[in-house]
Amino acid sequence: MPPFTKDVVKFGTFVVTSQVFHLTPLSFALVNLKPLLPGHVLVSPRRIVPRFNDLSAAEVQDLFLTVQRVSRTVERVYNASALNIAIQDGVDAGQSVPHVHAHIIPRRKDDLSDAGGTDAIYGMMESEEGDLGRQFADQEKKKQGQSEEAAGDKRGRFPAVDEAGRKPRSEEEMQKEADWLAEEMAKDEKSST
Amino acid sequence: MPPFTKDVVKFGTFVVTSQVFHLTPLSFALVNLKPLLPGHVLVSPRRIVPRFNDLSAAEVQDLFLTVQRVSRTVERVYNASALNIAIQDGVDAGQSVPHVHAHIIPRRKDDLSDAGGTDAIYGMMESEEGDLGRQFADQEKKKQGQSEEAAGDKRGRFPAVDEAGRKPRSEEEMQKEADWLAEEMAKDEKSST
Hints:
2 copies of one chain form a homodimer. Chain A is an alpha+beta fold. Chain A has one domain: HIT family, subunit A (2-Layer Sandwich), CATH 3.30.428. The first copy, chain A, has 5 helices and 7 strands. The first copy, chain A, has helices at residues 57-77, 120-126, 132-143, 148-151, 171-191, and strands at residues 10-11, 14-15, 20-23, 27-31, 41-45, 82-89, 102-107. Chain A has a 5-stranded antiparallel β-sheet. In chain A, β3 (20-23) and β4 (27-31) form a beta hairpin. Chain A is globular, with a radius of gyration of 16 Å. Residues 148-165 of chain A have low confidence and may be disordered. Chains A and B meet through α1, β6 and α2 of A and α1, β6 and α2 of B. Chains A, B: This is Bis(5'-adenosyl)-triphosphatase. Chains A, B: Residues 7-114 form the HIT domain. Chains A, B: Its cofactor is Mn(2+). Chains A, B: Keywords: Hydrolase, Nucleotide-binding.
């Protein structure tokens, strides 16, 4: 299947077109290479700026109306009962790709009881497992034929959470999820109008 | 000093008027009883609803324009270099007061290196130390003359982070910070117009 959009969409320096499942004039939503929990997605402004205060009023408004619509759909289709919505606004808050992005993570009761409780999600966001910058860099280098090991920059600012146990998803797998979410978003938009 | 506003402002069931430092037609910002880091504040819609998807488009837009303005000021006056912006949207995501609220937490390089790293802030948000519902309930009961010990409901869903070492702030202390932040917000609004 072709990706949801033919527009080339960039997240920081990375081309993420096949991961995009929703586009507005000023924002886009994309699925993750390594979701921390099922349905973990990102919403970004289309303009590439690092800090929340770099956004215009129109961009802020469009971004969070998009977060609201996306969060409604992912909560429904992933049978969740709650959501974490979080922005790491700047390097010293844990941001690894210098392009504003809101994490949306569907939650269920006791979903992380084995990992340390409800709060464990944040440790995961900050671990290598949640290091989007490294994940996208690894993906790019793999496309160029380098091994992931050679590609990894081994920054390792935080201890890995179950790093060994999880593989980045294939482009096909991500695109399949993106296509499905695009359809589900359309259903919700129909039902609310 | 009288509080910043004479409107009675409620956060969930709690009257927080003396903690409020910014008001818009649809949103308000308040200082915390026990900030997790200096400058940790909350921004809420004035209408008391539990979930982000309960908000109207106008409320979403006003809320995040307010988050943007407040975050600019607290980052500046607390000499921070980054921010965590986070919503626990629903009980299963750690929400303890059923009234939508965005946490804004100013961050600096290595500010939590002794507490476990950048990510430690989230564990703190989820611990008893960050349990706003309990803190406000304790405060109300203290006003009514009960001891904090008798008032505590001892839910203890998460292990306390340095619970013993920190006392809730007095009304006077919070109001002083609220007055100061209100002045600083006004300066930023002047400089941006």
